[in-house]
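Narrative summary of target 7.
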Amino acid sequence: MGNENSSITHLEDPRNYSSRKTVKYYHIVLIIIAITAVLLLVVFGYRAYEVNQIDPFEQPGSTLARDYFLDSVYSYFDFDPTKLPTTVGSCTTVPLKVIQEQNLISDIKYYTKCDQNMTLVKVCKLESGNYHFEVHMSCPNTDKVAYGEEQELTEENSILASPTAQVSFSYKAERLSSNNISYGQKQEMWKDEIPYENYKIVKETTYYRYRDRLWRYSGDVRYYYPQNKVIGSDVIEFYKESPSEIYPFKQVSQNYAYKWYIENDDGLRHYYPSGSTDVHKENTYYLTAPVKGAIRDEATKTYAAKYYRVEKTDASDYYPTAPSNNAVKLEDSLIWSDWSEYSLQVPKINPYGNGNREIETRVKVEVIPIEGDASDLVWSSLTSDYVTEQELISQLRNLGYNVNTIDDVAALKDIKYDLKQTYRDEVKKG
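Modeled conformation, tokenized:
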């Protein structure tokens, strides 16, 4: 018996066979794990790459597209404030198509996917004279807004900064008896200076002024070329290369910039701001039209940057917001800026994201004095309750008035109306 196993080789020994099989299985398992790990790295790495490639305008919950569009609409009215609605209780709309045609919004691919007419801003003039800007986005991946119940708008400040709030108006009209009365000549004056006891306002225009809270800062302060502005968002000039050696740092734009020109009667292109007719002698680029009537030169499309220098200080001048990321506010340095001049331009309520702006309004009116004994001035109700604009216009047409809008109604000498404002606002998630 002792010699029976002597002819079995080392490889044929069943004890060694079991061990070899285990080692072989172990190697196979390692190979499978390695392949699986590589596949997982590839899959998740690709997913991470895909996430990084998502347009920031399309990130879930992003308001970039809405906010950028709204800023462009502000620019639209800054160029021509007369396009704002002038009658209390009236509205106008500005579609994306118009903003693009005016070159007031930069070349952002996201907007090419939006409905150019249904993506719009609705601007309404409230009873106070303030304007409410409501944004409607008709684009892919736009979150659907859920609204609460309609309620009466008594505190306008609660919705002025809400671009999702929906404002509605209804009207209750009265008609003036024409017995033994006469109308004076139309005059323009401030509403708070009307000297007449009886009058009809046929047009109102709201003017604005504002002031900001200011602080001093310690630390870094950025000064942007060309005017040494400190607030980067106020700078609109871009350059391909630093326009001065003392401005070595750059803040690159993520959007295309262009050179812009104005065509005068001489038929030549005068590039802004230098006025040169040689495109190569103009080195300033802008994302959108820098002045009303400017035309962009499509051949100059490029990426460019804002350039700035940095200085350190223990106590800076007074600014409405931090002049750099490293600046520290000196809390005991708060003051108010001087009031701006009254202007038709609607100032931003919260331009620096800190809620430190104060806005005042003053209304200029066109007034028609009404002359006659007080007993002859009888206003009779045309509507027993508040009605819609179309219902009011229909009723006035039946009485022979040639009116098509609430602006036409406001211009009538013998018709006036009270306004009821209601709104629905977004229901916040979570």
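Residues 4-53 form one domain.
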